[in-house]
């Protein structure tokens, strides 16, 4: 490191008026007063929520809104989840509880016997969606999450599948379901080019 | 009750006509009752002591309900300054919000944690509220009044609850009592955040007691009396409010009043971001509400005091006949006084939603390194003026204030940093690497 | 000790081991499947190939030989120079990995091995990112090859570790490689499932997710488990184990390498010997007899009650107090309880509790032994009793004396995973007026106990077991005791009036001051991931 790499920063000196602190206070009061009487701005900014909803005003981005979770179904109507625990591993809030079991279907190994999400503990970061290898868990644009008890907001597998039924029209499933875990091996060749560059 | 019924009531209450109609009806009812019962309480109005009691009762009711309105106003102002609407769900324009809040406070579970010092824990909120309320005794709401039915040579009645000859000295005394409530709450809660809050409150209020006292002393020197009604009358007689004589003193008192009421930017004792809730962390339901009430009542008292000391109390320019003691003059004076107080409260609220909170060292620095020296200097200057007999001379006083401001600026210029900046006693060293 | 040069670095190693083992012991992560230090070398996986310096026959100079050598089959000799960090070696690893992945189903999301799978880790380290395979992968249904084990053939890499284990260690030979070429697979003979007392080890041996434990199947992902170093209480040999647990409890038990006792293996008894920890009917609250029934009591009441009973002298009987030290107790707990009994009644009889045995010791071809004695700490308790001296008795003697009504108060510790109170025991103990029963489960003693104290299982305690050969092995606590239950050691130290938390190590140090046998403990070193 050379001498001229170092930038010495100094606090800018204040003017005499600034030193008194009063002008800034008045300036601040001016700002708040301006906002106080800016009726137009207020009307433009505020949504009167229960009467005026974001989906009505078209501002809700259904494609990537982080709302209530859902568990997708495969074309046969079975839960798409394979109980790999990736979402609960990725979850920073530890709000996903899974109990896995042997699946009742011959073409599948493992499925979730229990799949509970504590929606109150969830921070809606979407990591579960990112982590899911089979795109089974997704966040929906449902944001009205109210109940009279905490227990009601611990959504179990049935409720999460129900959410899928409710929201599949608004937000269709992103990718086709994966059920054979690459067993057929029929991958497109353009992603499987031989790796010509040798690691050194 | 079924849901549709609730919904119907809710929509009904949102209609302005309903709210205002109900308000007018209640007002009419009260007026009619008062008129009907007039012969009953007429004798009470004629003697000073029972009259004072009536004033006490009326003002207490008024102030306590005003507190509720204040909370609504505070939330509305908060909303407006932040481009929101504030509460607007309960009743038309949210007007019934105070009612809902009050109900909520009353019905909430009153939790007394197991680890608290129970007697002190119960005492603290009561003390906080009571100490704030005590100050009202000497506010000269509407000067003096002589009722039409009283003989013209009878001495007019004072609308003060108590015309103490120690005047605002009493206010100083009981005003600083309210810190007991806060400190006790902090101590009794047996919670470190609450305790921090209590300690902060103690240090803060002791510090700001000084500039407040100095500012008030300046007024004392000017008026020569401690009695608030006389100070008001003096200002009304000359038409020159004390603010024009001593703006700097007013500033001192204003800042100190904010600090004494634990209002932003001096709300360190309850700093939510640092101390959860500060001294009232462990309080719930009505006991919490009492702290809340205490703060607002304190704010109203401070405003009333400042109006009396610096803004001519009930005096209004250009309105003749206010020096009369007729009952209609009294009503006008009362309205004038309350309006001024309301404006002050609005200012307090606006300041709260404008300024960020001080850091604790900044808080102390503002008090001890700038407000106290200014106060002492101003007091000295006023003392000289009073000795020379110029204490009522606007130009002389203003000149003294201005001079002070210039001196202040000079000293501030030497420190090169605002009084609120971070520690400026750090050595100014450019750290350069040696070659 | 021969010195070899690996990647330019001189490594000192044991003589007679393969280069791969030397590299692994030096901390190098050399990929391998088939090699296992406890099994014979077959050099079939071709993943551990290395470059070696040999004398060039043309020039007579030492130079890198043009072909690669399996490091698992090359014994070390002084001055040998090999390298793993070179292009040919990496090329080999990459191509072999691609070959292994040809038919691998990539069902890591549903595979229990994910997270500790050699195939996964080596693919990440040196394998190709994509597959060039365009044909259908072979799909093999899973096979039930034994009461505890499942075989997912399509995940298998045919390292034959499991086959060699059954041939060499257990000598039972249930597993075999059948078929040829791409039809090659592991199988059992019809009607001869994989069921020997060590069979669970094949699951740990399997480098991929082909052999899976039915008990652990789909229960948890391995990265969600924490591991505690423990010692199995299943038999008196003191097999060292890892307890894999999380907040829901124990999920499985794995062998912990221990060169002095069990090496890489554990018995199925040890592997599945944790079920009693989570049994529903565990005692959960201390109870005191009031009238005819046991009534719930608070832990705080117990020390005073016990002290009064155990310190009252009897006018008729010389030493009416007994403490029965179960061989399921740790050395520290046995010590504290013995000290407690002796501190109140200096002539208290100390008794080694019931020692459960099943059959005879079983020894396998390579020397692995399953002990008949199914308790972990008989020898430790005996050592303590010997040292303390005074009146001691064997369990049978004690029962005989109890039947005669010689005891007025006794502290009985249990802690056995299985029911142990047989009729003679119950009738003898019923003669004792003040009987304290400290056990895990309800038993026939409930009817006669004056005080019933819930015990904690071994996974909920810390301490030391002395195995049948006198080897002292400490273990960690995996789980907290059940809600409402105190760890045995904690309760005993409270009985003794010692304040604060019970720390096995501190107690052991005070014991060592009197008893030199307890001054040294043996803790096998932890091996890194994929070290064998």
Keyphrases for this structure?
heterotrimer, A: 200 residues, alpha+beta, Alpha-Beta Plaits, 3-stranded antiparallel sheet, two-stranded antiparallel ribbon, 7 helices, 5 strands, 26% helix, elongated, disordered C terminus, B: 435 residues, mainly alpha, two-stranded antiparallel sheet, 67% helix
> What is the CA-atom radius of gyration of chain A, in angstroms?
26 Å
Biggest sheet descriptor of chain B: 2 strands, antiparallel
Largest interface, by Cβ-Cβ below 8 angstroms: which chains and how many residues each?
A-C, 30 and 30 residues
Fraction of residues in β-strands of chain B = under 5%
Spans of chain A of 5+ residues with little confidence (pLDDT < 50)? 182-200
Which structural class best describes the helix and strand composition of chain B? mainly alpha
Distance between the termini of chain B: 84 Å
SSE run of chain B: HHHHHHEEHHHHHHHHHH
Helix content of chain A: 25-40%
Residue-averaged pLDDT of chain A, rounded? Answer: 81
- Please give the largest β-sheet of chain A: 3 strands, antiparallel
Query: Got a strand count of chain B?
Result: 2
The helix-and-strand class of chain A reads: alpha+beta
CATH architecture of the domain at 69-167 in chain A: 2-Layer Sandwich
Assign an overall shape of chain B. globular
Number of domains of chain B: 1
Q: According to CATH, what is the topology of the domain at 69-167 in chain A?
A: Alpha-Beta Plaits
Order of helices and strands of chain A: HHHHEHEEHEEH
Low-confidence stretches of chain B at least 5 residues in length (pLDDT < 50)? none
The N- and C-terminal alpha carbons of chain A lie at a distance of: 32 Å
Describe this structure in words.
The complex is a heterotrimer of chains A (200), B (435) and C (532). Chain A is α+β, with helices and mostly antiparallel strands and 200 residues long. Chain A is built from seven helices and five strands; from the N terminus they run ααααβαββαββα. The two termini of chain A are 32 Å apart. With 435 residues, chain B is an all-alpha fold. Chain B is built from 16 helices and two strands. In chain B, strands 1-2 form a two-stranded antiparallel ribbon. In chain C, 22% of the residues lie in helices and 20% in strands. Chain C has helices at residues 19-25, 87-100, 118-126, 161-169, 201-205, 268-271, 301-311, 331-344, 378-388, 395-403, 423-429, 488-495, 504-514; strands at 3-6, 9-12, 49-55, 62-64, 69-70, 81-83, 143-144, 149-151, 175-178, 185-188, 211-213, 226-231, 240-246, 249-255, 287-290, 293-296, 321-325, 349-352, 362-363, 369-370, 392-393, 409-413, 434-439, 451-454, 463-466, 472-475. Classes of the chains: A alpha+beta (200), B mainly alpha (435), C alpha+beta (532). The interface between A and C is medium-sized, with 30 and 30 residues.
């Amino acid at each position: 490191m050379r001498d001229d790499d170092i930038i010495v920063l100094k606090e800018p000196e204040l003017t005499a008026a600034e030193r008194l602190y009063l002008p800034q206070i008045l300036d601040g009061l001016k700002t708040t007063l301006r906002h106080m009487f800016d009726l137009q701005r207020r009307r433009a900014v505020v949504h009167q929520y229960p009467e005026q909803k974001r989906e009505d005003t078209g501002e809700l981005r259904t494609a990537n809104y982080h709302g209530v979770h859902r568990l997708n179904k495969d074309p046969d109507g079975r839960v798409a989840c394979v109980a790999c625990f990736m979402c609960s591993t990725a979850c920073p809030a530890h709000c996903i509880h899974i109990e896995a079991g042997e699946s009742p279907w011959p073409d599948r190994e493992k499925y979730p016997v229990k799949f509970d999400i504590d929606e109150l503990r969830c921070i809606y970061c979407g990591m579960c969606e990112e982590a899911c290898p089979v795109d089974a868990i997704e966040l929906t644009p449902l944001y009205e999450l109210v109940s009279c008890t905490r227990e009601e907001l611990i959504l179990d597998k049935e409720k999460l599948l129900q959410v899928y039924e409710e929201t599949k029209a608004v937000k269709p499933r992103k990718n086709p379901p994966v059920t054979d875990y690459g067993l057929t091996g029929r991958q497109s060749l353009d992603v499987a080019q031989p790796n010509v560059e040798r690691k050194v | 009750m079924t849901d549709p019924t609730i919904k119907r009531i809710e929509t009904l209450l949102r209609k302005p006509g309903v709210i205002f109609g109900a308000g007018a009806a209640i007002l009419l009812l009260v007026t009619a009752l008062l008129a009907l019962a007039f012969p009953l309480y007429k004798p009470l109005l004629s003697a000073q002591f029972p009259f004072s009691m009536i004033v006490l009762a009326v003002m207490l009711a008024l102030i306590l309900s005003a507190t509720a309105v204040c909370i609504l106003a505070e939330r509305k102002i908060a909303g407006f300054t932040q481009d929101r609407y504030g509460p607007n769900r309960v009743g038309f324009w949210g007007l019934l919000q105070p009612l809902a809040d009050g109900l909520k406070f009353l019905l909430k579970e009153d939790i007394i944690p197991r680890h608290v010092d129970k007697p002190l824990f119960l005492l603290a909120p009561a003390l906080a509220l009571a100490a704030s309320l005590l100050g009202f005794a000497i506010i000269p709401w509407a000067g003096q009044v002589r009722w039409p039915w009283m003989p013209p040579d009878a001495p007019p009645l004072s609308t003060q609850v108590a015309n103490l000859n120690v005047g605002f000295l009493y206010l100083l005394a009981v005003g600083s009592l309210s810190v007991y409530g806060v400190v006790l709450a902090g101590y009794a809660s047996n919670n470190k955040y609450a305790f921090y809050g209590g300690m902060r409150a103690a240090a803060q209020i002791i510090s700001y007691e000084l500039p407040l006292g100095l500012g008030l002393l300046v007024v004392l020197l000017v008026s020569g009396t401690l009695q608030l009604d006389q100070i008001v009358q003096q200002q009304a007689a000359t038409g020159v409010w004390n603010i024009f004589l001593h703006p700097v003193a007013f500033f001192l008192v204003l800042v100190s009043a904010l600090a004494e009421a634990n209002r932003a930017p001096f709300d360190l004792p309850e700093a939510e971001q640092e101390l959860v809730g500060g001294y009232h962390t462990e309080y719930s339901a009505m006991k919490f509400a009492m702290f809340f009430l205490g703060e607002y009542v304190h704010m109203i008292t401070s405003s009333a005091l400042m109006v009396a000391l610096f803004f001519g109390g009930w005096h209004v320019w250009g309105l003749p006949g206010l020096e009369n003691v007729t009952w209609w003059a009294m009503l006008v004076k009362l309205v004038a006084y309350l309006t001024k107080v309301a404006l002050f409260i609005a200012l307090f609220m606006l300041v709260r939603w404008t300024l960020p909170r001080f850091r604790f060292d900044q808080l102390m620095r503002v008090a001890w390194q700038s407000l106290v020296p200014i106060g002492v200097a101003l007091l000295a200057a006023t003392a000289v003026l009073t000795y020379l007999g110029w204490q009522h001379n606007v130009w002389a006083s203003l000149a003294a204030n201005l001079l002070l401001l210039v001196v202040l600026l000079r000293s501030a210029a030497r420190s090169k940093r605002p009084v609120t900046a971070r520690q400026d006693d750090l050595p100014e060293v450019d750290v350069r690497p040696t070659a | 000790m021969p010195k070899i040069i690996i990647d330019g670095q001189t490594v000192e190693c044991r003589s007679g081991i393969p280069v791969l083992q030397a590299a692994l012991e030096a901390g190098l992560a050399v990929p391998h499947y088939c090699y296992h230090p406890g099994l014979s070398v077959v050099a079939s996986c071709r993943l551990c190939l290395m470059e070696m310096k040999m004398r060039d026959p043309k020039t007579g100079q030492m130079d890198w030989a043009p072909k690669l050598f399996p490091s698992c089959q090359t014994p070390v000799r002084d001055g040998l120079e090999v390298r793993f960090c070179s292009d040919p070696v990496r090329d080999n690893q990459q191509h072999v990995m691609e070959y292994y992945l040809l038919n691998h189903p990539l069902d890591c999301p549903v595979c229990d091995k994910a997270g500790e799978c050699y195939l996964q880790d080596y693919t990440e380290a040196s394998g190709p990112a994509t597959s060039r395979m365009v044909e259908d992968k072979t799909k093999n249904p899973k096979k039930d090859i034994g009461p505890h084990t499942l075989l997912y053939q399509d995940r298998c890499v045919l390292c034959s570790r499991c086959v060699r284990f059954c041939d060499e260690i257990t000598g039972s030979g249930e597993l075999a490689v059948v078929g040829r070429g791409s039809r090659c697979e592991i199988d059992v003979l019809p009607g001869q499932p994989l069921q020997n007392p060590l069979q669970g080890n094949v699951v740990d041996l399997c480098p991929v997710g082909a052999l899976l434990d039915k008990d652990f199947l789909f229960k948890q992902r391995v990265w969600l488990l924490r591991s505690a170093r423990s010692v199995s209480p299943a038999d008196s040999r003191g097999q060292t184990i890892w307890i894999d647990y999380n907040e829901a409890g124990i999920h499985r038990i794995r062998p912990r390498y221990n060169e002095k006792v069990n090496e890489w293996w554990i018995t199925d008894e040890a592997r599945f010997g944790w079920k009693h920890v989570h049994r529903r009917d565990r005692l959960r609250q201390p109870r005191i007899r009031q009238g005819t029934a046991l009534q719930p009591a608070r832990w705080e009441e117990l020390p005073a009650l016990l002290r009064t009973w155990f310190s009252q002298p009897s006018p008729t009987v010389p030493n009416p107090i007994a403490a029965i030290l179960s061989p399921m107790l740790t050395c520290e707990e046995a010590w504290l309880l013995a000290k407690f009994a002796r501190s109140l009644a200096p002539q208290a009889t100390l008794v080694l509790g019931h020692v459960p045995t099943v059959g005879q010791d079983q020894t396998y071809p390579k020397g692995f032994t399953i002990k008949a004695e199914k308790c972990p700490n008989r020898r430790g308790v005996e050592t303590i009793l010997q040292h303390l001296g005074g009146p001691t008795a064997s369990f049978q003697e004690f029962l005989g004396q109890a039947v005669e009504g010689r005891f007025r108060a006794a502290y009985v510790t249990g802690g056995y995973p299985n029911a142990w109170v047989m009729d003679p025991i119950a009738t003898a103990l019923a003669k004792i007026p003040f009987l304290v029963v400290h056990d895990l489960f309800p038993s026939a003693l409930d009817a006669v106990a004056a005080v019933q104290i819930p015990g904690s299982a071994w996974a909920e305690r810390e301490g030391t077991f002395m195995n049948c050969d006198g080897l002292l092995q400490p273990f960690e606590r995996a789980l907290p005791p059940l809600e409402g239950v105190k760890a045995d050691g904690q309760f005993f130290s409270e009985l003794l009036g010692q304040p604060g938390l019970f720390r096995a190590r501190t107690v052991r140090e005070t014991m060592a001051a009197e008893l030199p046998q307890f001054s040294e403990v043996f803790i096998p070193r932890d091996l890194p991931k994929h070290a064998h």
